[in-house]
Design a protein that fits this description.
By secondary structure, the protein is α+β, with helices and mostly antiparallel strands. It is 42% helix and 21% strand.
Amino acid sequence: MTSRIVDELALEPNSGPRDIDQNQWANLEAFLRDTPAGDLALAVRTFVPAGSSAAIGIFDENRLWASLVVSVDNSGKPASVSTIQRPAAEAGGDMAKAANEAVKWVQAHHGPCSMGFFVDKVHAEALLRASDKATAIRTASASGGLVLSPVPPALAIALA
């Protein structure tokens, strides 16, 4: 699979994407199209500890619209990407409940989940445009448009 996400994370050809929901992936690729090159890789290096995974979900009208699971090997290098699969992707209704199910799914299929970042589409778009990402994250959280759990130490420090 050729994609900007795979290229940016510099995944090895034999360990790249697996278990991809094509609709979620297409939405994510389109969503990230105008972001500066290197932003995703920098975020993974900064906030996803070695030997763990991060789950990112974007919700549109209480349904999982796009997702990305990035697993990082013990050296800290991105090892694989996926999307959140059923039944976690179909939890629906309450974003907090869906986020909880997604983190459980990641832990069961990808090992330790060190970061869960789930945001509604409106706030995700604002975050991408924001020059001050921490303020955009705080705004999303204050309005109920963000579920952040678990929170890796580096992200907790950045948001403090």
